[in-house]
């Protein structure tokens, strides 16, 4: 059995109510739920939350909320791995045999069903523990700058001051949308970022972290542009 698990903790501080705040006509979490349901990849789509309001909205959009996440897994410092491990253990305790699980973030309005299917297909090739979304950095990270305590500028890697951009290795980062994994890898909380993981490449214009009001505003502009066929 394959399951989608959408972590959605209550109590967001920088964007209050972020997981269910309206985004382009739907509660934010609804975009992830619908993509999971429409992908055809999952026997169950489960939202792991500690918040009754989030749970209610999740059910209205077709997800299950068979348990409430315990408080010790709902603070500001809890990572993704223990949250997914908890959900899988809850299912195992009830005789549910899960083989693969996809952690799908609640604030991923750009996620597409075809990307979820690509992640599933890559994981099912059998040579990795995880397959997750990544995208390219827009600028060579080897030429990144820092601002010093004195208000001056310095390079993180000054040895690359004269290196041409096209001669530098391309760098990628986590796109923050979805993470397919084998159930055993999730339960054992094996590291996500390792040679046991495979990338699912996404274009930069479909990737946007949403952690601040500025991020939210930019995401809405990107979303509108894509809907209008501008991107």
Automatic annotation (TrEMBL):
InterPro entries assigned to the protein according to its UniProt record, in alphabetical order: CMP-NeuNAc_synthase, Cytidylyl_trans, Nucleotide-diphossugar_trans, PseF
SUPFAM superfamilies attached to this UniProt entry: Nucleotide-diphospho-sugar transferases
Signal peptide (UniProt feature, chain positions): none
Keyword Transferase attached: yes
Record's keyword terms, sorted: Nucleotidyltransferase, Transferase
Domain of life: Bacteria
Pfam families assigned to the protein according to its UniProt record, in alphabetical order: CTP_transf_3
Molecular function terms from GO: nucleotidyltransferase activity
Protein's name in the database: Acylneuraminate cytidylyltransferase
Organism the protein comes from: Alloalcanivorax profundimaris
